[in-house]
Specification:
Strand content: under 5%
CATH architecture: Alpha Horseshoe
Order of helices and strands: HHHHHHHHHHHHHH
Number of domains: 1
Structural class: mainly alpha
Distance between the termini: 63 Å
CATH superfamily: Tetratricopeptide repeat domain
Helix content: over 70%
CATH topology: Serine Threonine Protein Phosphatase 5, Tetratricopeptide repeat
Number of strands: 0
Radius of gyration: 22 Å
Length: about 230
């Protein structure tokens, strides 16, 4: 309400429209948010926050190319803006351009070394590329910054499992399960780690929990059958 009043009182304020757009975006009111961001850019075409906001809306509405152009323009205007690089990286990753995404994530870290999501995304890409050693180094950093983040713990657990570190994998998957109790893939990963640690009874419990959460989970069903034999 305060931002609505401010935008009405100072209609020429790009910042008021940008901030109002951000609030609308957080409320899921994307069309209204888009209008606010566009108004902010009419008043100030180089407003990086509005460019990022509008690009995010365009991506959500299924226009990735336009979104990427917004983010790239934001980087050109403010080369030291970590959020502009991060938005660009996320969009590149979503478009399957992982090499460029990695480069953009690393540029983000140059300007914000304490950005936990960046280390998480780098680690996820490295895991997908079968580079668990490199991924583990990044995910250790992400866990240090956000120790209760279930997604980060899940990724680091997978890195440990790939590197044949069952105890560490079990610890990470256990923490992930506490933070993501409705995720079948977490319990399946925990079951695999328990198998690697030669704990079949506990592995069966984890596999069966995965099946309770996702009855059509074929891998969990196959693992559960093997463990019952």
């Amino acid at each position: 309400m305060e931002l609505l009043q401010l935008a009405a009182q100072i209609p020429g304020s790009a910042e008021a429209h940008q901030r109002l757009g951000k609030v609308m975006q957080l409320q899921g009111r994307l069309n209204e948010a888009e209008t606010c961001f566009r108004r902010a850019l009419q008043l100030d075409p180089d407003y990086v926050g509005a460019l990022i906001g509008l690009g995010t809306i365009e991506a959500a509405k299924g226009d990735p190319q336009s979104a990427l152009k917004r983010f790239q323009l934001a980087v050109e205007i403010e080369p030291d803006d970590a959020e502009a690089h991060f938005a660009c990286a996320e969009q590149l990753e979503a478009m399957g351009r992982s090499d460029e995404a990695l480069a953009a994530y690393f540029r983000t870290l140059e300007f914000n070394p304490l950005h936990p999501e960046v280390s998480q995304r780098i680690g996820a890409i490295q895991l997908a590329r079968n580079q668990p050693d490199q991924a583990l180094a990044r995910l250790d950093q992400a866990v240090d910054l956000a120790p209760e983040n279930g997604e980060v713990r899940l990724l680091r657990g997978r890195a440990h499992l790939m590197l044949r570190h069952p105890p560490q994998a079990i610890a990470d998957f256990g923490m992930a399960a506490r933070n993501l109790p409705n995720r079948a893939d977490v319990y399946y990963s925990l079951a695999l780690a328990l198998v690697a640690a030669h704990q079949p009874a506990d592995a069966l419990k984890a596999a069966e929990q995965a099946l309770r959460l996702a009855p059509d989970y074929a891998d969990a069903r196959d693992l559960s059958k093997r463990l019952r034999r």
